[in-house]
């Protein structure tokens, strides 16, 4: 099956610093990747859709200057949380859709837990 | 807009027994995909089963099967011979055939009791 890897799986940072999370599709090309945020015991909340070679599309209420997304290649998307604050602490998950496949299936990364002190 | 509803926040089942998780959805589209994803304590989202709306036959994957009722917009998941490793959050999800965006339900926390 298709594999999506996220790194780091856990990160702790100080308030005011920036943190970058990587999402890689290891064995397939992904024109589109998605970034979600998940609060404890809640469902996944779509933050933005990352398109290779173009600007990300953000969901309503998500600050694009706060959550910078770069999809520089067909196998890598990055999410940078800028000037992190404690309220940004959360579990962030990425997913990828295999290019050219119309099965609808998305493949998920392992998730990254961000803790902002 | 599509919506996915999971009306059971929590469920429990005895090991080796059968349990059914419910899911309903609302859409005006005729062609779409439905999924059940499992999220164990490790938090990794794992695809359990997929159903294509144009297929009348219910999908089956080993101990997991669905009851897909297109007219009723219902998509329940049956887990047979429940195992301790089935303990997880289960999310029902919908995606339109021409769409990139997956819509999730709120999830059902399933606990398998030894």
Tally of DSSP helical segments of chain A: 0
Q: Could you tell me the mean pLDDT of chain A? A: 91
What is the N-to-C succession of helices and strands of chain A? Answer: EEEEEEEEEEE
**What is the total tally of β strands of chain B?**
12
Q: What overall geometry of chain B do the principal axes of the alpha carbons give? A: globular
Strand content of chain B: over 45%
Low-pLDDT residue intervals, each spanning 5 or more residues of chain B: none
Characterization of the model:
The complex is a heterodimer of chains A (117) and B (114). Chain A is mainly β. Chain A is globular and about 40 Å long. In chain A, 0% of the residues lie in helices and 52% in strands. The relative contact order of chain A is 0.33. Chain A contains no helices and 11 strands. The mean pLDDT of chain A is 91. In chain A, strands 2, 4, 5, 6, 9, 10 and 11 form a 7-stranded mixed beta sheet that branches. In chain A, strands 1-3-8-7 form a 4-stranded antiparallel beta sheet, with no helix packed on it. Chain B is an all-beta fold and 114 residues long. The termini of chain B are far apart. The radius of gyration of chain B is 14 Å and the shape is globular. In chain B, the strands form 3 sheets. In chain B, strands 2, 5, 6, 10, 11 and 12 form a 6-stranded mixed beta sheet that branches. At the A-B interface, strand 4, strand 5, strand 9 and strand 10 of A face strand 5 and strand 6 of B.
């Amino acid at each position: 099956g298709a594999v999506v890897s996220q790194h780091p799986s856990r990160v702790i940072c100080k308030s005011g610093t920036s943190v970058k999370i990587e999402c890689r599709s290891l064995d397939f090309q992904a024109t589109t990747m998605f970034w979600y945020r998940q609060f404890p015991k809640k469902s996944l909340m779509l933050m933005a859709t990352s398109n290779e070679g173009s600007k990300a599309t953000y969901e309503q209420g998500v600050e694009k200057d706060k959550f910078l997304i770069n999809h520089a290649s067909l196998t890598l998307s990055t999410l940078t949380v800028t000037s992190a604050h404690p309220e940004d602490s959360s579990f962030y998950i990425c997913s990828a859709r295999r290019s050219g496949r119309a099965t609808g299936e998305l493949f998920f990364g392992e998730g990254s837990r961000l803790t902002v002190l | 807009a599509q919506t996915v509803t999971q009306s059971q926040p929590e469920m429990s089942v005895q090991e080796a027994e059968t349990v059914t998780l419910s899911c309903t959805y609302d859409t005006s589209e005729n062609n779409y995909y439905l999924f059940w994803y499992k999220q164990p304590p490790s938090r990794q989202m794992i695809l359990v089963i997929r159903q294509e709306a144009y297929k009348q036959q219910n999908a089956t994957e080993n101990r997991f099967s669905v009851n897909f009722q297109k007219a009723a917009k219902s998509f329940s998941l049956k887990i047979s011979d429940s195992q301790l490793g089935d303990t997880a959050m289960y999310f029902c999800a919908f995606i339109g055939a021409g769409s990139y965006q997956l819509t999730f339900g709120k999830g059902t926390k399933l606990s398998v009791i030894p």
